[in-house]
Amino acid sequence: MIKKRNMLAQIGLVIITFGIYAVYWFYKISVEMKAVGNDADASPGLWTVLLFIPIANIWADYKFSELFEKVSSDHFNKWLLFVLWLVFSPAVWFIVQSEMNKKADQKL
Fold first, then answer.
1. For 6-58, how does the pLDDT look when each residue is reduced to its tens digit (9 = 90+)?
2. Which residues contact 30 (CB under 8 A, 6 or more apart)?
3. Which is it for the CA torsion 64, 100, 11, 43, positive or negative?
4. Is residue 1 part of a domain?
5. What is the pTM of this model?
6. From residue 21, how far is each of 40, 93, 94, 103 by CA, in Å?
7. Alpha carbons 23 and 67: distance in angstroms, whole number
8. pLDDT digits (tens, 9 = 90+) for 71-106
9. By the 8 A CB rule, do 86 and 61 touch?
């Protein structure tokens, strides 16, 4: 099930939790995308752990981008999303959450 999340509330949660909510968000969105994409090979737990390991975190971001390309309605380019992870990750959060909110609205 996809949960619709308020963008402003998420900004507040990231600030209040000193960024811990961002890690939680990464995991939960990965789980939701795995379910939507019906991708048995996706490993949200592993990707989340890899966020804390230098160099391995780049692979986790790429795999996340790859899965998002599969589940996004317009098949957002995985390479563009991946580069955004490296350059300006809040843009990734906005793009992915906006798309997942649309999918949540469709399910209702």
1. 999 999 999 999 999 999 999 999 999 999 999 889 999 999 999 999 999 99
2. 42, 44, 47, 48, 64, 67
3. negative
4. no
5. 0.91
6. 25, 12, 14, 21
7. 17
8. 998 889 999 999 999 999 999 999 999 999 998 888
9. yes
* CB distance 21 to 12 below 8 Å: no
Contacts of residue 94, defined as CB under 8 A and 6 or more positions apart, other chains included, come to 7
Among the listed residues 107, 73, 99, 106, the one whose alpha carbon sits nearest the alpha carbon of residue 5: 99
Expressed as residue numbers, the domain containing 95 is: 7-107
How far is residue 78's CA from residue 94's CA, in Å, rounded to a whole number? Answer: 15
Q: Provide the number of structural domains found in the chain.
A: 1
Would 2 be classed as within a structural domain? no
